[in-house]
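Researcher: We're teaching a course module on how sequence relates to structure. For the next exercise, students receive a sequence and then see the predicted structure as tokens, so they can try to spot secondary structure elements on their own. Here is the exercise chain.
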Amino acid sequence: GPFEDNGKYLYNGFIGAEGFAAHGFLKEDDTGNMAISPGTSKMLTWFFQWAFCTAAATIVSGAVAQRVKSPAYAIYAFIMAGFIYPVVVAWTWNNGWIMKVADVGYMDFAGSGVVHLTGGIGALTGAFILGPRINWHPDDPAFHPHNVPLVVLGTFILWFGWYGFNCGSTLGLHDAGTGALAAQVAMNTTVAASTGGIVVFAIRYAKLRKYDVPAMCNGILGGLVSITAG
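Model: And here is the predicted structure for the students to work with:
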């Protein structure tokens, strides 16, 4: 099997060896019907990780938007979804070698490192390879955010979706305990996003004496990504 004899850590510490193409997801009972065990099913876990995997893949799109051709991005998305993200998850959430480092384990409640750092490194790598836009200069208004309402709208759409991202990481609402945990996660998510936006907004105003709304939106997203760790 993919785990060591103690059933805790991955046998090779690098990647799992079972479950490819949904192998072993469905099991039959003695009557030939599908055996459903109570709790989290493999299908639910697959769907949950599929959503996180797509998030990691789409983070890069903002860094390379309008500068790569669709086939190039499709190739990247295939590599990220098929090889990079699954290996990172195997190292971390699936008790891989990172769990053994200094015997302290690994804690990432909803994927701040597993999802967002992985996607962020991909975005940084893509932007580094592409280089700056042609004739780009930080003081050129042509390269400044030019549609602030759409920036704000996109930020609030992401903020709203983050409640599913974080609260959904409780992996269930079947009793009062998990319900209370989801409520706490929702509160922490809201406070983190608000604090990040206000702090960045205040710093930019103190430096520029102008209301920098796009920077506030970046602060909101920074707060959301930070609190995702737990």
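Model: If you want an answer key for the exercise: The first helix runs from residue 42 to 58. Residues 7 and 89 are 17 Å apart (CA to CA).
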